[in-house]
Records
---
Amino acid sequence: MLRIFFYILLFVFLTITTQIGGLVLILALLLSKKIKRSFRFKKTIVFLAIYLFSTFVIVPLIAPIFGREKVRHSSQLYPTTYATVLLNRNYVRPQLNDLLHSASTQLEGQKIELRYLDANFPFIDGFPLLPHISHDDGKKIDISFVYVEPGESVDSRKKKSISGYGVFEGPKAYESDQIEVCKKKGYLQYDYPKYCTFGSINDELEFSNRLNVEMINTILKERSLGKLFIEPHLKNRLQLNNSKVRYHGCQAVRHDDHIHLQL
């Protein structure tokens, strides 16, 4: 009974985090029984082999049936962390791929690279990409902010946390503090990403007002962009007056560690 309970929990966890992991787990358990030879970590090795083959070969072939494709990487566009790719959280609709590549190409002259975080799973509209509440239709993606080292040196390979989330550019003393407003209203989840950093790193990096304004304004020029979410204090600080720049509401989480784009 304990073993069955463990596999049920594992199935749920893998499905929530990768979408395909639960199904791969079942296949791995069945295939492991077919393999007569006994060796250490047999189930784990079989699972990893099927999972990696599925992630990099099978899933990209099937995803277009559901109207989605992998984010196409380039020298100007790549994931903040490759865990996003390994967990199948890097799928978007073709129109969003085009938007990302158009914006990243325009930013090349500014020496700014687009680094993306969670996008969507490859299959099924409405399937939640937890912990997000809206990344379920291929139309959304999170983008990391631009940080600089002391002296304004830009190194896009560096980030403020291992996950890419959870290290905030919070409001200054003279700026509005929507975070406290939401927490006082009882939305305690509002700043929960601080528990999802998996470790803060590169403390020397500084938020660049100039480069983030350049990046965001370039993205805002894309006609297919529907909305861009950012925390109100950063919207005011960066003087983002475009009507597509919106506030996401207290029911979501704070957006001063990344921006959210959607078609």
---
Amino acid sequence: MKRQQLTIWVSAILAVLFLFVVLVFQVRQTEIAVVTTFGQITRPITEPGGYFRWPWPIQKIYKFDRRLQNFESRFDQVTTADGRSLTVSIFAGWRIQEPQLFQERFKGSFTRAQDNIEDLVRNAQASVLAKYSFSELVSTNPDDLKLKQIEAEVLESVQSDSQIQRFGVDIEMLGFKRIGLPESITANVFDRMKAERQREVSRLESEGESEAIRIRAEADRQRQQILADAQAQATVIVGQGEAEAAKYYQVFQKNPEFAIFLMEIETLEGSLKDRTTMILDQQTAPFHLLKQVIVDVPEQSGEEAVPVSEGQSVDNPVEP
């Protein structure tokens, strides 16, 4: 009896578990789902949790990844407003927002969805890029580039397209992956870019030369000013010196012989300040003063100093 009851309980538990598996399904945090009843969509599910369903073939569950999906478009050749050709590749990030529309449109196929989204993106990029010039997409000057603005316009154009509303998806991000040039015009573009850089180099060299001329002119002006100031100061000093000299000349005019004698002594002192050997004529001024030698006699001898003339000896001085 006890064994039968245990069997009944085990069977009941297994039946409950079976019914739970068959009649209940789970939607994870990263998923969204739709429930179809006899092939018709009857209920979208966008929140995670456990849900009741009727067993197949009455109802069927389709689950989709609700995380951001990324794709990169193929290279597509576009024409800018100034008639230049570019090859552009765009990346985009999209997410399923309405699972019932996504199921109806693409039957749950992400590949079909990305193909349709890529067509919309390519059409949008062609229409937007046609409004911008080549230099706003490719330039050596960062201030001329408008890539962010162009990306924002392409994204807005795709989001506002009526078709994307029927896809049940939302384009959340979009940007340029690569921008290239057709091989046929690459060489011409590079030559033109080199010419632009050379013009920029010439402009900078011209500005540098102008600045150098200005600096040299300013330096010359300052030099002339300094020389003029120095010349003025020198003139003032010379005038002051001449004024002082004039005072001494007035004194010298009273006794010219004494003035000449003082100047000869000063010249002689300056010439013989260092140890010097000279061979000169005895009449050469101021060295003619050396012709007469004064001999000092000690005071205790009681004799006076006697000048010695040429040809005389100190031992036999001439009486005064």
---
Amino acid sequence: MDILTQGLLGGVLAQSVAKKEEKKLASFVGIVAGLLADVDILISSANDPLLNIEYHRHFTHSLFFVPIGAAIALVLLWPFLRSRISSGRLYLFCLVGYSMSGVLDACTSYGTHLFWPLSDERVAFNIISIIDPVFTLILLMSLLLGLRIKSKRIAHIGLLLCSAYLALGFVQLQRAQALAQELIQKRGHVAAKHIVKPTLANLVLWRSVYSYADRIYVDAVRVGLFAGSNTYEGESVKIMVAQQDLPGLAPGSLLHTDIQRFMKFSDGFIAFDPSQKNVLGDMRYSMLPISVKPLWGIVINAEHPQGHADYRFFRDSSNDVRQTFVNMVLGRCATAECK
């Protein structure tokens, strides 16, 4: 999730094992340790744009890296805190604060190398958005109340509420998957691959993405927390096949290798952006859950097969996009004809 939430989670976790007189220090240490896993965002190369997306949420988020990450946090903090706390207690707060960074990110839709080096698979439970203000607010209030009241019970209650919220996300995911499957069957399709992901900052509106024959289909599914569920049929786009769409591209070229890397990262859901013919997009993500305009992708220059593909973001935060998104979250009509 976002770095603010990661830090808050680390702080609340550290509070949950701290004594009354240690609360402030434990919170600080937990926040620092909780943020440390995301330093992998700094792994990048000016010559290889895809290196960053390959190593973000990689080994630093693995469960097996937790004790090492905690040790790194200890080394960084010890020179400043050695006069205030023993190394053993400091390591405990670092360990607890760091422990759930990878797990929390695995609950989102982006994917995390949770079991590296035993497995190189990106784990994504798809039960919460990468930014969720409700989840973040629970942690913030828990941290602040814990500092004020100085009782472990506050942290325990906060963590319990966070767990309950994630459980709600799991239930919502099952409901969204069921509705999406009904739409697929209504079309007479049999999905070769199907994923359902939460949209930004809510557990109500979900994006369904599946492949059938030679196309990728995207739809929005709204599942109300109490009542009111509906679907918004979206767009479709042809799946990119290198041999067909880029017949002149040599298999051993650097550009071909980058396309294969991007395909692995995108779990095979790649297609050319209909509005930008040279952009190969990750169809799992878009500003609107019914759109095949990708949120990010790579720019293909077939005339330079020995050059790396350029990785870019394509954010559209126009008023029309924002209003359409809000309408779908609220269960309103999302098309221009309804306005």
